[in-house]
């Protein structure tokens, strides 16, 4: 009988990244109107750069302009945390966040209103330089 080299989680829906901390970087971003048309959402697509989930993507949506003050405040705080983790004092364009490695804390938000579970990012932290070197040196046989 063949045994996988690592344990396999069966409690996470297909397509989702299990909760945890991951090295990742923004690879896509866009400012889009909210569903109501009265606000703006910053869509950030992160690509995981190391480990078993290397290459997988996690999308985060930040309500940077919103009628609901609390939603807007939380989004702006999260954007500020991302900027700080990336070593930026602030940004004028979301492209400034691209390709800067950071640590993201991923969780799973349960689905509602007919939508399934999805990944969400709970926190951003700077990537320690020594961890970056270590992660870069760990290559799987099938990695380019």
Automatic annotation (TrEMBL):
<protein>
    <recommendedName>
        <fullName>DUF669 domain-containing protein</fullName>
    </recommendedName>
</protein>
<dbReference type="Pfam" id="PF05037">
    <property type="entry name" value="DUF669"/>
</dbReference>
<dbReference type="InterPro" id="IPR007731">
    <property type="entry name" value="DUF669"/>
</dbReference>
